[in-house]
Write a structure and sequence with these properties.
single chain, 409 residues, alpha+beta, Beta-Lactamase, Heat Shock Protein 90, 3 domains, 8-stranded mixed sheet, 7-stranded mixed sheet, 15 strands
């Protein structure tokens, strides 16, 4: 028996089979999975919690059930570990305990359970190693809490960062607007001189300057809207009626080469939001879709209800509350986005458009508005497969939409 083995092992009387060393009644009701392996590494006993973690109840004594009843073991990073290379196998050689071994149990159905294992060698009174006992703690709840905590910390950090960005942006936009007002006034005074000169070349230069000032003014206005804390003037809205009322505007904005389809669920519930901001958000998404389809395509606008909880909607933000939601989806058949672009798409001032064709504030403002309405936003996209943006708003009341799909209003 190795040095210090007695301090970490369970002494057993000689001549007793390993499976009977530990009372089944004792281990069966433990909150952790417990199982025993003999000196050949074969599982010879386990409790109910171990089977729950493994996702199955293996037949005892089978030689192929080596070291662990799990189908596969993975590192915390998800890399497969062959059973004969795990500490479970090595302990039969080293005869030393292994503590706080983090691993992932992969079941036969592909589901995974993160666990913390503590493995103790078992010796008889003569020092002969009979096998080992492994206690396995199910970490699913702990990992979920850690992820949720990390999500909350990230959301808090992002909120603090955006507050600073908003303050800086607001100051810059005000100063910028003052300079633009002076330039605009100067151009207005200059316009009469340009007309009097009757020079086509001078008129062309003047129009370029005027257009640049108008674009810069629009950018400054967008910056101010982005940085401003908006008053929540909310009203009860029929999502179908709202989308129907915008259809003509959206078709004009995206152009004739893009086919706009509606798929409005007749039983969609009402929501509560700021109407102007919601219309602006949908129009913004439609224009983004248009820009992703320069050669034409399809734009699908749909509504439906959804019941969300933390299990079926893991990508929720910090203000998420389980319950009934109204979903407005904007789906295009455009060029799509890479995972790298998708990670940055909501960052202020990030844009994939050419210079002068995008401020990079549209999607940031859409997400900010949805968050203010206590809603949720998801985006899915792949290169060449288009993009799907879904806006989730808490249902308001029990009334359902009476709007008829396909009627422009």
């Amino acid at each position: 028996m190795p040095e210090n083995a007695l301090s970490i092992s369970l002494l057993l009387p000689p001549g007793t089979s390993l499976a009977s060393k530990l009372s089944h009644e004792l281990i069966e009701h433990l909150p952790v999975g417990v199982y025993l392996c003999n000196a050949q590494g074969t599982v010879v006993a386990y409790n109910h919690k171990a089977a729950d973690i493994w996702g199955e109840s293996p037949n005892l004594g089978e030689s192929q059930i080596k070291f662990c009843g799990a189908h596969k073991l993975l590192t915390p990073e998800g890399v497969h570990i062959p059973h004969h290379q795990t500490p479970l196998a090595e302990i039969l050689v080293t005869q030393k305990a292994v503590t706080n071994f983090r691993t992932i149990v992969e079941r036969r159905d592909g589901s995974r359970v993160p666990v913390l294992a503590n493995i103790v060698p078992l010796f008889d009174s003569d020092g002969t190693m009979l096998g080992f006992m492994n206690s396995v703690q199910d970490l699913r709840q702990q990992v979920a809490q850690e992820l949720n905590q990390q999500h909350l910390e990230n959301a808090l950090f992002q909120s603090q960062k955006m507050e600073v960005v908003g303050q800086i942006t607001s100051g810059l936009a005000h100063d910028f607007n003052n300079q633009l007002a002076s330039m605009s006034m100067g151009l207005s005074l200059m316009e009469r001189e340009v007309e009097a000169a009757n020079s086509e070349k001078l008129r062309r230069y003047f129009d370029l300057c005027k257009e640049a000032v108008e674009r810069a003014t629009s950018l400054a206005d967008n910056l101010l809207r982005f940085s401003r804390k908006r008053a929540k003037k909310l009203e009860r809205l029929d999502p179908n009626q709202l989308v129907l009322g915008m259809t003509s505007l959206i078709r004009t904005a995206v152009g004739a080469r893009i086919v706009v389809n509606l798929d409005l669920a007749p039983d969609t519930r009402f929501l509560k939001a700021n109407k102007q901001q919601l219309e602006s958000a949908i129009l913004n998404l439609a224009i983004n879709a248009r820009d992703a389809m320069p050669d034409g395509g399809t734009l699908d606008l749909s509504t439906h209800d959804a019941n969300l909880d933390r299990h079926n909607f893991p990508g929720h933000n910090a203000n998420f509350q389980p319950g009934s939601y109204v979903v407005i989806s904007v789906i295009d058949s455009g060029c799509g986005m890479t995972p790298e672009v998708l990670e940055k798409v909501f960052a202020p001032f990030f844009t994939t458009k050419e210079d002068g064709k995008g401020t990079g504030l549209g999607l940031a403002m859409v997400r900010g508005f949805v968050n203010e309405m206590n809603g949720q936003l998801t985006i899915e996209s792949e290169p060449g497969q288009g993009t799907c943006v879904r806006l989730y708003f808490p249902s308001y009341g029990t009334e359902h939409s009476q709007a008829v799909d396909g009627a422009d209003r």
